[in-house]
Amino acid sequence: MGHQQDAYFVPSKSQWPIVAAVSMFVTVFGAAHWLNAQPGQPGFGKAMFYVGLAMILGMFFGWFRSVIRESLAGSYNDQVDRSFRMGMMWFIFSEVMFFGAFFGALFYARMFAIPWLGGEGHGVLTHQFVWDGYSAAWGASGGGGPEKIGGFFQTIPAWGLPLLNTLILLSSGVTITIAHHALKAGQRKRLLVGLGATVLLGCMFLYFQAHEYMEAYTHFNLTLKSGVYGATFFMLTGFHGMHVTLGTIMLAVIWFRCAKGHFTKDNHFGFEAVAWYWHFVDVVWLALFLFVYVL
Amino acid sequence: MTSGGIRRSVTAWAAAACASFGTAAWANPEPNQLNMTKGVSEWSPYALHMVGFWVCVVIGILVFGAMFVAMFRFRKSRGAVAEKWTHSTKLEIVWTVIPVIILIVLAKLATGGLTSFADTTGSEMTIKITGYQWKWRYDYVDYKGKGVDKVGFMSKLEESSDRTRQLKSNLDPAKIQVDGYNTYLLDVDKPLVVPVNTKIRFVIVGGDVIHSWWVPALGWKIDAIPGIANAAWTNIKEPGVYRGQCAELCGQDHGFMPIVVKAVPKAEFEQWLTTQQDEAKVQKAAQTAQTAPAPANQG
Amino acid sequence: MAHAATHDHHDHHGAPASFVQRWLLSTNHKDIGTLYLIFSLTMFFIGGAFAMVIRAELFKPGLQLVQPYFFNEMTTMHALVMIFGAIMPAFVGLANWMVPLMVGAPDMALPRMNNLSFWILPFAFIMLLSTLFMPGGGPAGGWTMYPPLSLQGESVAYVIFAIHLMGISSIMGAINIIATILNMRAPGMDLLKMPVFVWSWLITAFLLIAVMPVLAGAVTMLLTDKYFGTNFFNAAGGGDPVLYQHIFWFFGHPEVYIMILPAFGIISEIIPTFSRKPIFGYRAMVFAIASIAFLSFIVWAHHMFAVGLPMGAEIFFMYATMLIAVPTGVKVFNWVSTMWGGSMTFETPMLFSIAFVILFTIGGFSGLMLALAPADFQYHDTYFVVAHFHYVLVTGAAFSIMAAAYYWLPKWSGNMYSETWGKIHFWSSVISVNVLFFPQHFLGLAGMPRRIPDYNVAFANFNMISSIGGFWFGASQLIFLGVVVHCVYFSKKKAADRSWEGAKGLEWTVPSPAPHHTFDVPPVIHDDELAHGDTSH
Q1: Which residues, numbered 474 to 533 in chain C, qualify as contacts with chain B under a Cβ-Cβ cut-off of 8 Å?
Q2: Complex ipTM value
Q3: What whole-number percentage of chain C has pLDDT above 90?
Q4: d(Cα B188, Cα A234) in Å, to the nearest integer?
Q5: I need a surface site. Which of A152, B287, B290, C446 has the fewest CB within 10 A?
Q6: How far is Cα C174 from Cα A120, in angstroms, rounded to an integer?
Q7: Residue among B56, B222, B226 minimizing CB distance to C235
Q8: Is residue C330 part of a domain?
Q9: How many CB pairs under 8 A join B and C?
């Protein structure tokens, strides 16, 4: 595209940032209002929340459309490309830290909070004076904590659906890599098949995850309220599931862009960003599988 | 504080330090009080506090002194011309190493203090403290190896303070006094009574939200956390009334749940405890008589 | 598109004429920086108003003005507004304005995201502040929002979502700053030739990206505990209220340094300028900032010495905390050495910087004392702590921001501020701030807990002195407002490009006021022009 390396690019003004800020505000204000709604007085929260979500969707659509147009027009030089890459990498790092908070909670609950309630180590007095008679254990036998909050429940066995989902996500990591190589080699058909397979695998994962949740609620009585076990289980797998959903949607968008021929073998940051994101989601799942299901 | 030579040197240093703050041996907050109380318990962080304080003062004098000399000597208005040097490895090593040495000494002292604080073994008495919004409950668990039966009570802000502290009450806080000492917001209806010269173990929990049990004269505070028990100990050396307050924000009346510990000679305490136990028995009997058919169902 | 036309349509040096175009849709780092600074100043006065309510109620014993619950709302809101609304956006604003100028970049790396980072903030604060007018009242459980207390309010969801928004804004802002520093430097601006301010922001931005998501996680758990029946912080369900405090302070301690590292950077720019001598030990300064940032991740539980940690944890966190004194000491010694042998003048930015070094160090001293866990059993949650963190945040962070404002106002506005009124502002602030906060050390040591609306008569005198200092300090900031407005709109004295005799660095090579677009073409770097002058090794 003949850019001089020593010239800078500064994008033109855009309405999308401020639209984004307003949309986010509408969404969360609605959500907060909805959460505080009293029975019988639903208020405007729910409607406001959905309007906000629609605005956010519209905003993403508009913002990305303008970025894609600029990209296709060749406005971006290597420096802009590097900025985008850095932005995406640091965004993924922030996501890692977000999951870190929940993994930290799981670690603490399992290694400290529950054993202490049962009288181990630092918890001797807690057990003796507050929770006399509670025998601590992680998972079903530890119940919903000393007060058995949420009632008796069973845990999801690791070697059934979770194992299947692990295999699905690992395969999707392979298919997206195949697609990436195909893109770099200019093999359009292989690219579309590989990427399409990744999208399908993502959908399969989500289907099985939803199935697992239904099983948990209907057959195992494992719910969000099942003590700290249920809390960590559903929050970790739930946030991961939301990220898979987002990743799958992004992959689908990229598939359409590939089909329209938006990417060249040297210039396909959009593809790579989503691929990085997908690998990140994959790695988080491996940690989940190990710490939430297996151990 | 802890053992041996360090303790002696620290105490000597602390004594010198204390002199510069006046020698008042207060235990409860005094008007215009500048420094931390030495406390009345066997364990006190006072000496460590003073060591830390003087370390800071000495470093402060050196650093700020150098700064003021620089500001005076190297002013442009006095014709100072800027020099060119930008670093000195030797100097930088010196002012990295010296603080490290000071910190090691401080860490040693503080570790000793922590170790003795954490050691609740050998206590002769256990009291369970429960924090509620916005009062304390005290339950006597055991004394001299024997369980104490049903001695426990709520302790909350006494009535005259409570009236005065209402918004726009127009009552004068200065008028609330006990024995010439102003007890506004520092007095309760029923104090915690404990014996002197007895190692007392406190087991502290929260009833609803997190509170923190703090009597400055005992030298520490520790959080009262719902569902989790914490432990601390004291061994009060002088009879007296020691006042404190909840130290962890616990809602609207956080500022109005004081703590009063009344330390009395052992004999007096034992007598008090017997009276309380007898009263409890009488009350219990009366209660069972009243609610005879329905078994008392209290957690 | 022909590439030399880097700014799609506008001519290179003019700002767009339309107000909406310029301020709402901006992609210009200077305009967005200005927006951040104005927002921050607004929040500074709102948070300050809350502080005035607090000090007025504490003027004398007894409750005269507000109910205790409202008092708790004020302490909570004061902290949230000052931390997330005043201090952090001010530093981000300074980074927006100055980092591109200092590294020779035409703008931030991701200018549209930059605009989004800013515009989230006003909405987040509208949401936060609106809770004060809701039937259930605003948050009153302290800015740390410890459960179970924080879950008792009805404003929980609003506050938590507002914090989510602020977090998103901070993370995007930080990503932008990192990308700008790593990717947009002019050729020849090596990492170890960057001004210390840029270094301090590079490290701060890393801290922000690392810990803001952790805060988001912590408050999300609060939200689900309150509204969806999870048991993260409920011991009866196998959780632990202390778990929240661990996660919160894993965010909270780096957060404290997010609010002081850029201040270190600012002071490291100003002291060499007015000493007319390069910064002493440039590499040591950079290394010290990096070590402080590293240590900030392993000291969090020193905020929790009184929650009943296992003794091993108490000892570990105590030692790690004490270690921070070493790199912080290096910084203070290096600032003093920079002054030593210089040729000093004392314009307002320098006065604020000197006050910073002394008063921040006093805050550091009380920090060292607080690090001693056994002594902290007394200090914790008392006015001693209140005094400590106001010394580091007001005479530390806020003074550095004021120093920066005076230092760079000529570059921003093209006019010199009134030196006389600047000095009046300085002396009035520096005296009153000590009247305000120094007696709080005594109150804490004497046994006054923090966050109480009323107190025993024994604490009356120092509280009254402190309140008088508070009103005086608050009033002094109106002078600051006056000086800034006068400088921008009314000052007749034009600023030179290099507004200060001893000032070095790229920002002084562009005209004053800095044109709307600068460095369309990367500048040529002359090493002797750089602020630190440490190119010898």
Answers
A1: 502, 532-533
A2: 0.94
A3: 90
A4: 46
A5: B290
A6: 42
A7: B226
A8: yes
A9: 317
Residue B165: give its domain's CATH number.
Answer: 2.60.40.420
The verdict on residue B294 lying in a domain is no
- Alpha-carbon dihedral sign for residues C444, C449, C451, C453: negative
Tell me what the mean pLDDT of segment A232-251 comes to: 97
Tell whether C6 lies on the interface with A, counting CB pairs under 8 A: yes
Is C26 touching A (CB cutoff 8 A)?
yes
Q: How far apart are CA B36 and CA B286, in angstroms?
A: 48
For the segment C93-106, the average pLDDT, to the nearest whole number, is 95
| Inside any domain, residue B64 | yes
**Contact at 8 Å (CB) between B118 and B43?**
no
Distance of CA B25 to the CA centre of its chain: 16
C215-263 pLDDT, tens digit each: 999 999 999 999 999 999 999 999 999 999 999 999 999 999 999 999 9
- B170 with B225, same domain: the answer is yes
* Confidence band of C421 (pLDDT split at 50, 70, 90): very high
**pLDDT tens per residue, range B61-88:** 999 999 999 999 999 999 889 888 888 8
Span C469-487, pLDDT tens digits: 999 999 999 999 999 999 9
Class of CATH domain A77-294:
mainly alpha
Overall fold of domain A1-76: Helix Hairpins (1.10.287)
CB contact under 8 A, A128 and B227: no
How many structural domains is chain C composed of? 1
Please indicate, yes or no, whether residues B95 and B43 belong to a single structural domain of this protein: yes
Q: Which amino acid makes up residue C157? A: A
User: Does residue C9 have an active-site annotation?
Assistant: no
Q: Do B251 and C446 touch (CB under 8 A)?
A: no
Q: Which stretches does DSSP call E strand in chain B?
A: 125-132, 135-143, 146-155, 177-178, 181-182, 192-195, 200-206, 211-215, 220-224, 230-234, 240-246, 258-264
> Same domain for B154 and B23?
no
Neighbours of chain B (3+ CB pairs under 8 A): A, C
CB-CB neighbors (< 8 A) of C439 in chain B: none
Instruction: Kindly report the CATH number assigned to the domain that includes residue C435.
Output: 1.20.210.10
The answer for B180, left when phi > 0, alpha when psi is -120 to 50, beta otherwise, is left
Q: What's at C3, amino acid-wise?
A: H
Q: What is the rounded distance in angstroms from the CA atom of residue C198 to the CA atom of residue C262?
A: 8
Closest alpha carbon to C507 in C65, C124, C105: C105
Is residue C388 annotated as part of the catalytic site, yes or no? no
C455 is catalytic: no
- Taking the Cβ of residue C243 and every Cβ of chain B, the question of whether any pair is shorter than 8 Å is answered with no
pTM of the model: 0.94
In chain A, what residues touch C234 (CB-CB under 8 Å)?
A: 145, 149, 228
Mean pLDDT for the stretch of residues C10-31: 79
Cβ–Cβ below 8 Å for B228 and A129: no
Token match 């988080």: residue?
A284
Q: What mean pLDDT comes out for the span A129-158?
A: 89
The token pair at C321 is: 């905390």
Q: What is the mean pLDDT of chain C?
A: 93
Indicate the angle between helix axes A78-108 and C196-227, nearest 10 degrees: 50
- Which are the contacts of C160, defined by CB distance < 8 A and separation ≥ 6? A32, C219, C220, C222, C223
Three-class secondary structure of residue A201 per DSSP: helix
Q: Which of A280-284, B120-124, C296-300, C410-414 shows the lowest mean pLDDT across its residues?
A: B120-124
Does B131 share its domain with B113?
no
pLDDT at B25: 55
Per residue in C67-98, pLDDT tens? 999 999 999 999 999 999 999 999 999 999 99
Give strand pairing partners of B143: B125, B146
Q: Can you read off the two tokens belonging to residue A119?
A: 């009288």
Residues B21 and B163 in one domain: no
Range of the domain at B267: 125-287
Verify whether residue C76 is a known catalytic residue. Answer: no
Q: Quick check: is C255 catalytic?
A: yes
- A to B CB pairs, distance under 8 Å: 20
